[in-house]
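Hi R.,

Here's the chain you asked about this morning:
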Amino acid sequence: MFFVEVTVFTICQMSDYANICTDSADRCKRTGAFVKVDFFFSSDFLFLFFLIPQLWSQTMFKQTLKNFSIHFNALNEKNTVSSGDVITGHISFDLTKLTKITSITMELKGKAHVHWSAGSGGKRKRRRHFSAKLEFFKLKSVILQEHGAVEVKLQPGTHMYPFTCQLPQGDFPSTFRGPNGQITYSLTVSVDRPWHMSKDFETQLNFVSRINTNQPDLQAPLSGSNNMTLCCLWCASGPITLTARTEKKAFVPGETIKIICDISNASSRTATPKVNLLQKQFYYTHNRVHKRMVPIKLASVTGQPVSAHTSDVQTQIKLTIPPTASVSISNCSILNVEYLIEASLSVPASPDLTVLFPIILCDTPAGKINSLSVKLKGIAEVRWSEHSRDNKNSCDSKVKYFSIKEAIIQKGHDALSTELINTPVFSIFIFLLNLRQSIQSVTEYYCLIQPVLYIVLSVRDLPSSFTGKHGKIEYTLEANLSRTMRKDKKATEYLTLVHNEDPRSDPVLMTPQARVTKKKMLFTSGAVSMDVHIERMGYHQGEGIKVVASILNRSSRDIKPKYCLYMKLSYFAKDESKLYTKDVLKEVGDAIPPPSRPTVTRIITIPPDTEASILNCEIIRLEYRLRVYLDIKYALDPEIKFPIVILPALKVPEEQHHQSAHPVYGSGTSANSYVAGETNFLQNSTASGPSTPPPPYETYALYPLTNFSGKY
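And the predicted structure, written out as tokens:
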């Protein structure tokens, strides 16, 4: 029997191997002392003898270096890279103590690997395995390295090192992972320390092979046809013919394919059209003698059945490609991915009539812009339901004020037009400052909308924007971007329109109002009367209404003047209407004892957040009333009601209404001046300021110049 004396150094986090040490040894390990442990010379001992140094290296390494991460700057929203792209980023890690580093290196690698097996595992048949590997490139660079006798020692704390690397130029296949193979591109950072095993940290890159989709054969439509005749013994029915076609050959994941099927069914059976998207994965050995094909059905859509003895039926079926589908791969010698559109007619008790044509899935840059258009429209609509004992009636109505569409880029143009749009019926400029940000939030490339957009509209006597429980008045700007090989992108911006009305331009709004009411007491002697005056009918949000009331109290009771500003909201649909009332504010004056005849003055301040009156809409009407009444105990209260028109808050002081500091194009008034019946668009109803023309496009340094002929 042989004994071996082994010196064990301090090892942390080895609870699984604590049974090899005594209690005293554990205590010494925690204190850093040396421990002598006797083992029997056996296979288990040999395993531990070679495992302990490795575990020691790994556990000590983890204690010293923590939170290692690799960050690289995304080149696009999909975070993909392509041949020739420059990748920039940084690595970061934490050190718990002073650490000597031999080197930090980075490796950029692209490779492909396939493997599958065939045959059975029985006694007579042996299962065969096939595999192949390819390495596209392998590039190494140094981030940190010691030079000669100069040691590199890093202090405890967080360390960060930037890096830059460029993918080589070449026709490399896109990243792919399948059941029997994969194509991967990785960025690996290795940290080497003296007397420690090298530690590797790896991150995967999503590589995409770019395809020039402007090739004529990729943009050409595809079509195919097939026919068959149903028969039973010597009886044969009429022929069934299927012709299918698509607009083009190249598509992108997430795009919708339109398949147009022309069907002629002269048989006595019903035929049902169906479209499938098939993916075929091919795995090869290096000599291509052996291969494996894996078919996958990615999507399927069934159309409307075509009855018997029907001819010249055309149906359109829309098939959406899954956004997660990988792109086509044809430039790898050991792994290919192909796609097929399978249009078929399913006939009972008969084989399907099938038409197949191949397509290509690719991930392309933004591509050529076909068209860019904007559409400005304004509508008002109401909708509510009336419930009765027997049924439920729906009431609705809609008014369309305008719908104007303008093309910024027409089909066949490659550059954005910065030309101001002029139309004779237009009279007001609307400056949409955040249109560019709106388009940016929904498109993949932020630099498509660079010029400042102006739209001139004839918006005379339009109601202000409004949203209520049963109706709304809204104005929207819609932008539509059409690009080659891309789904159309749309953005909608909701505009706030304010109907600016100068009360001095309308005599009705400036006319003083006065009302008188009298009430004779029934059970007591005497009477009360009230003569109330207000300055005018029209007031702005936040403005005060001066109410002067001459009150005569000849009764035997105290009376109190009270004031109430309330709202009347009416919806109209055909012969139906719906009315809502709501108190905006209430105020109570001082008690007036009998007999007396005082004159009471009260300032009723309109809340600044009160909705402006809407009197120029056919189906929505928002009105206000000021009710002044006397509170008399045990009697009906005499009251006087005044119609009040609430106008939008003033944007400039009163004396500056007609000063044109910033003239609006096509008009001699300022952007904040009031013109009777005129309206003003604001992106924010509380914002103010003139609608001045934009500076030249080139003066904005924050707008990158757009080059539509290149890749972006």
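Residues 512-647 form a domain with the Immunoglobulin-like fold (CATH 2.60.40.640).

Let me know if you need anything else.
M.
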